[in-house]
Amino acid sequence: MLNYVIKRLIYMIPTLFGMSMIAFMIIQLPPGDYLSSLLATMADSGQNIDPAQVEALRRSYGFDDPIWLQYWKWISGILFRGDFGYSFEWNRPVADLIWERMGSTLALSIASLLFVWAVSLPIGIYSAMRRHSVGDYAFTFLGFIGLAIPNFILALTLMYVSYKFFGQSVGGLFSPEYVEAPWSVAKFVDLLGHIWIAVIVIGTSGTAALIRILRANLTDELNKPYVITAKAKGLPEYRAVIKYPVRIALNPFVSAIGWVLPELISGVTITAIVLNLPTAGPLLLRALISQDMYLAGSFILLMGVLTLVGMLVSDILLALLDPRIRFN
Amino acid sequence: MKADAMQRQAVNTERAADAAAGEVVLTVENLSLDFRLRTEILHAVRNVSFQLRRGQTLCLVGESGSGKSVTARALLRILDKNGAITSGRILLAGKTGAIDIAPLTERSPELLKIRGGRIGLIFQEPMSSLSPVHTIGSQITEALRLHRRMDKKQARAETIELLRQVEIPNPDTAIDRYTFEFSGGMRQRAMIAMALAADPEILIADEPTTALDVTTQAEILDLIKRLQVSRGMAMLLITHDMGVVAEVADTVAVMHYGRIVETGSTDAIFYDPKHAYTRSLLRSTVKLEQNQRSYAAAAPVATAPAPVLSLRNLSKTYGASTGWLGGNSNPIRAVDAVSFDLYPGENLGIVGESGSGKTTLGRLILRTVEPSSGTITYFGQDKPVEVTGLSKHELKSFHRDVRLVFQDPFASLNPRMTVKQVIGDPLVVSGKAKGAALEQRVAELLELVGLDPMAMERYPHAFSGGQRQRIGIARALALDPRILIADEATAALDVSIRAQILDLLLDIQKRLELSFIFISHDISVVRYFCDRVAVMHRGKLVEMGTAEQICTDPKEPYTRSLISAVPNPDPRNKRMLHRTRFSV
Amino acid sequence: MTDHVFIDEAPEAGPATTALNTGKPVQTAVAGPWQLVWAKFSRNKVAVASGVIILMLFLVGLFAEFLAPTLPDMSRPQFTNAPPQELRLFATQADGSQQFQLHVTGYTMSVDLASLRRSYVIDENQVVPVGFLVKGAPYKLWGLFALDTHLFGPLNPGDTMYLLGTDKLGRDLLSRLIHGTRISMSIGLIGVGISLLLGVALGAVSGFYGGWVDMVVQRIIEVISSMPTIPLWLGLAAAIPLTWSPLSVYFIITLIVSLFGWTGLAREVRGRFFALRSEDFVTAARLDGSSERRLIFRHILPSLTSHILAVVTLALPTMIVAETALSFLGIGLKAPIVSWGVLLQEAQNVRTIANAPWLLIWPSGAVVLTVLAYNFLGDGLRDAADPYES
């Protein structure tokens, strides 16, 4: 088991390297560099620029270094000093800006994941056991709709519906009076009152996908000989199903963390922009539009790392759940 | 058939000279089962009646599609969703009168009590029939707690006792193992322990040894028989193997396309078969007990001293240290220094159990698996060729002379190509024929293997298993090969079709002067087909001799144990009960 | 005691069956693989219907100029955010009798001086006669043929017919939606084409050769597929210089969208290649002397094409949604190009939507319908992809 975890960790290294390359590429992608855009802004506002000062800045940021050296400086700063670079728009180190936002992104993603699991498990089992029943068809149809509606459209629709019929604006995570307030039971309740719409919006497509996967897997498993063995043993149907095939069909459920998480983080990003939630999403979009690239690149890198950690967790859980993986 | 053919369903009765029968525990009366398929209703079981008696074994024998498994499962009301019992009764005798299982509902407590409690069930595939993610112990204790109301501790102790009874070594640790840590035979033992957990009166064994090697099969049958006798259970054994029937049955029911065509005592069925189907089944089984070749080609070794293929110290090692991490410390020798000669016109059989390396040996000769060491010399048209040294391109001409016939007639034909394309492919690739010439050659080949040349525009799925195997043989013959390697070429076929295919191969050989390397786990097939037989065990060639000598007078202890474990299709001369055992 | 009993009849030749009346059976013995796939697919009515819808959407995109009642960027400032006009069959004549007259009702508009917002009221008395194949705004079909006939529109070119309402610049939403269909449907198609090329090539190479090639491709796939897509799309799309022409933006967005769609395809192709490579019939072909090229193209790929088709169909909606999302956020396609995402960009906040809900309803309806249809079609294709199983 320990060997397995170590092996998985070693496998993560090249992937992490690849991700950092992509993030770095995104940072480098916009034409010119931050300095030129800064100069342009300063020139626009009529400020005088001292060429020597520009040169000094240029050197200190290493804009003239070869690309691999720039990459090394950037990545070693992150790895050894936790230095993600400087946000030129906010005039603060990136590291000061991202952690809180990443925290709320993670929290929202996990809340959505729990929602996805809680909803899809019972429905998936029901649909597989009562295939072609009215309930199964209803859930299948809802699932298709859930898969077909993009997050942001669902968010907009729910916003419109709640505005139109309840006269209430559902943006943000808190009502205005609680935004700055210290944590309290009332604030938490207020949070729950706001967060549900985001969780539904983010979780719907994942739920629909997982129901379909669980239904398909469980249907396969239900026809396996070991289920017949369990029945031949005299176990009542539901007990036989819960103990044996559901246990095995749970595998994709756990491994879902690996692929649902990137989707959820994606979903959180765009939903947060629409619903104006204080997560990484709106800040990322703003950073990208104003070409505040270190901030944007750091967000993208961290989101990638987050999904990678999710995959690692899912692999470890899977090994715990399934002895076949554990023993090989 | 009989003279009074006017009687459409005349039932003939005859007293069987059988030993005193035990009391009846289960009676099946006129059971019929339908399956609703997409385009038709399949009457899988029709008017089937039989009785199970305490302490006795009824063998339900039939080929694939005869409905024998479905019948067995129907006794526990385990049917697929599209199946239903349409008529008949299944009466389980009890102290307070008989219960009819047929009308019980899926969830009724009576049925759940009977399942596993009064009737135990063993399946063919011990791997897939046990849950891969639960320990053996948890699956057995479950039955104990369900039917015998034991607490956890009692159930665990009883499970260990059961594992001991089915002769699993170290039962107190084995209980916490998973199925994939067990060998096939051990898994089947665990399965038996589970079926016996609640001490049932009836044991249904559905092809319990089909997936196992012969020696393991002998042990498992032995075990089942002993447990049955000591517990006084009635047993329903489902099998396709007349040898197994002869070894263990008291009574036999022969099924054919959903009907029991003949029932009787084992002796009566084997020595006085009445129904034409029973007779043909027995004929094809018994036929395989004789060697066809002893009089066809007397002694090829003496007359043709120049071999066509020579193997010297051929070895394949897996897991040797090749990687930078050092690799595995104990490599597996799949094939270990095998040497033999194959002569022109000879049929050489290679027998062995699973894991003996026989299949790997076949692949090594063709170099679809690369040998680790040793030499393969092929004496072709002009000069001897060292096969292990051939380049990819040179190998192609070797592959034209040495062809392979596959085991699985379904997987080995591309479903998206017509028969003409399949058989013609080697001709097209080698550039030997195209257009009308190709069509003519394919027609010739189809006729050679006994198929209608008109069928060449059809796709493989339109053919039965036996016909597909013929197509595979035609493909192998397309390039006028000199050697055919047949890897379990008849293993996937029913016994009657198996005999037909073997006869076809013998016939083709006579006409085309071929040599065969016939790889099989089935000793009777090898005996029927081969001049000489090589016995493999754990990668080594342990004994080689003429087919008759190996089958009747084996020298090596392993061969002796192997031969004596083969069930003999003769109830008056049971072989397995006094078999020799081979200890490692 | 056991009686020796037997049925005194010759053995039967086959299992007993009763045929069910399920229409014309397919002659499977000589039917080619595609015939079997089609037979299996056509049994799935929902999938067939979805296929028809997709086909119609493509036709709408193809003949957008002709089908749209007017030009997508023709704006009338006096009709900003006007609600949909109703289509009616009968008009009240001067004498009070009802007579058949295809028409839409007109508006009366009033301006609320406090909020400076216009409100429109349907005016029953105002009849705008409409009809088929009317002369309207001139256009060039596919940039080639100068025409001015529209399938449907007001008989008098000066009249207004806003069946789905207008946007904040007073442009006809229906016409814009029809033109958006062209862009949105084609971006999916081109994007999937690029994905297909990348996915099949890399997946096949990876699955066929295995070894280190496979290792490298697998790492690349893993990196790309574990990046959350939307942030990544955002990052790449934001780098497009503002000065680029709309057409260049269109192509680069297609490229970005497809760059991350190929991984799923490559995985599928690789997995199937792996499975097929060790199939007996491929080994048989190898022993028949087939070259690797022949093995791939003659024996392996034909078994894959139907699966690939299914996966591609299921990948298409992802591309369409990606484009829609990017354009909605303002870093994808930009005016004057019209796509469903560009249309949705105008429905950014609750106030706008509350004021003109049609700006949200119709474009998102188009997106959802398309995605649904592609999903049903893809599912049907996937189920039919292997006609030989069971």
Strands, helices and their partners?
The complex is a heterotrimer of chains A (328), B (584) and C (390).
Chain A (H helix, E strand, L loop, with lengths): L1 H27 L5 H11 L6 H11 L5 H15 L4 E2 L4 E2 H36 L4 H15 L2 H16 L9 H4 L5 H38 L2 H8 L4 H7 L1 H31 L4 H10 L3 H29 L1 H5 L1
Helix pairs in contact in A: 1-14, 5-6, 5-9, 5-12, 5-14, 6-9, 7-9, 7-12, 9-12, 12-13, 12-14, 13-14
Chain B lengths: L10 E2 L11 E13 L3 E14 L3 E5 L6 H7 L8 E10 L6 E2 L8 H6 L4 E4 L13 H12 L4 H14 L5 H4 L9 H13 L5 E5 L7 H18 L2 E6 L2 H7 L2 E6 L2 E7 H6 L4 H12 L5 H4 L3 H4 L5 E10 L13 E11 L4 E5 L6 H9 L6 E7 L4 E3 L5 H10 E4 L13 H12 L4 H14 L16 H13 L5 E5 L7 H18 L2 E6 L2 H7 L2 E6 L2 E7 H6 L4 H9 L19
Parallel strand pairs in B: 4-9, 4-10, 7-8, 8-9, 14-19, 14-20, 17-18, 18-19
Antiparallel strand pairs in B: 2-3, 2-5, 5-6, 10-11, 12-13, 12-15, 15-16, 20-21
Chain C lengths: L4 E3 L9 E3 L13 H10 L2 H18 L1 H4 L19 E6 L5 E15 L4 E25 L3 E10 L18 H37 L1 H16 L2 H10 L7 H14 L2 H16 L2 H8 L4 H37 L11 H5 L5 H6 L2 H27 L6
Antiparallel strand pairs in C: 3-4, 4-5, 5-6
Helix pairs in contact in C: 1-13, 2-4, 2-13, 4-5, 4-7, 4-8, 4-10, 5-8, 8-10, 9-10, 10-13
What does this structure look like?
The complex is a heterotrimer of chains A (328), B (584) and C (390). In chain A, 80% of the residues lie in helices and 1% in strands. Chain A has 15 helices and two strands. Chain A folds into two domains: 31-83, no CATH class; 96-321, Orthogonal Bundle (MetI-like fold), CATH 1.10.3720. Chain A has helices at 2-28, 34-44, 51-61, 67-81, 94-129, 134-148, 151-166, 176-179, 185-222, 225-232, 237-243, 245-275, 280-289, 293-321, 323-327, and strands spanning 86-87, 92-93. Chain A has a two-stranded antiparallel sheet with strand order 1-2. Chain A is an all-alpha fold and 328 residues long. In chain A, helix 5 runs antiparallel to helix 6 and helix 7 packs across helix 9 (185-222). The longest helix of chain B is centred in the middle third of the chain and has 18 residues, at 214-231. Chain B is an alpha/beta fold and 584 residues long. Among the domains of chain B are: 126-197, no CATH class; 294-321 and 330-568, P-loop containing nucleotide triphosphate hydrolases (Rossmann fold). In chain B, the strands form four sheets. A six-stranded mixed sheet of chain B has the order 7-8-9-4-10-11, sandwiched between helices. A six-stranded mixed sheet of chain B has the order 17-18-19-14-20-21, sandwiched between helices. In chain B, strands 3-2-5-6 form a four-stranded antiparallel sheet, covered by helices on one side. In chain B, helix 7 links the parallel strand 8 and strand 9. In chain C, helix 2 (45-62) packs across helix 13 (358-384) and helix 5 (211-226) packs antiparallel against helix 8. Chain C has helices at residues 33-42, 45-62, 64-67, 173-209, 211-226, 229-238, 246-259, 262-277, 280-287, 292-328, 340-344, 350-355, 358-384, and strands at residues 5-7, 17-19, 87-92, 98-112, 117-141, 145-154. Chain C has 13 helices and six strands. Chain C starts with a strand and ends in a 6-residue tail after the last helix. The interface between B and C is large, with 74 and 44 residues. Strand 1 of chain B pairs antiparallel with strand 1 of chain C.
